[in-house]
Write a structure and sequence with these properties.
The protein has seven helices and no strands. It starts with a helix and ends with a helix.
């Protein structure tokens, strides 16, 4: 790994590429904002848990740690739909799915972003938020089940 200051500059650049404030990034990573600020200024070096949190945001870890390569991971070219965004759902969602139109609209909005890096950042943000929502839903179900079990045991 190169110097802590250079790593801090890349951490800051990644946060800015995602369009996040330090407070928003700290919340997403599960860090105190003061810790994030020290990482970005090179005063402290992130450990394994913090680096894993950064990896979950979609950054190319090789670039983050060494400065080599691209900020966003390279991916294989995606097949283009033959005629419309709705065809992107062929085999994925039936045409009568209640959210098919919203998914198609979301894809169209993201694809209209001319900057590829910004599109990747938008997709990373959407994926992170979806994962967080799923985790929260699972936690709520677990709490509900625990409360039901506790009530059943009490009475």
């Amino acid at each position: 790994m190169k110097s802590d200051a250079e790593l801090g500059q890349r951490l800051r650049a990644w946060r800015q590429a995602l369009g996040l404030t330090q407070a928003q990034m700290a919340e997403r990573l599960g860090l105190h904002i003061g810790v994030l600020k020290k990482y970005e200024t090179g005063q402290n070096t992130p450990g394994g848990e913090a680096l894993a949190a950064y990896a979950r945001t979609g950054v190319n870890m090789n670039w983050l740690l060494t400065g080599e390569g691209e900020m966003f991971p390279r991916k294989a070219p995606e097949p283009q739909p033959e005629t419309s965004q709705e065809q992107a759902f062929a085999g994925f969602l039936p045409p009568d799915h209640p959210h098919a139109r919203r998914w198609a609209a979301l894809i169209q909005l993201v694809e209209e972003e001319p900057d590829e890096a910004r599109r990747d950042a938008i997709l990373a943000e959407l994926l992170t938020r979806a994962q967080e929502a799923l985790e929260l839903s699972e936690l709520r179900r677990a709490v509900h089940a625990l409360r039901a079990a506790s009530k059943a045991a009490q009475g």
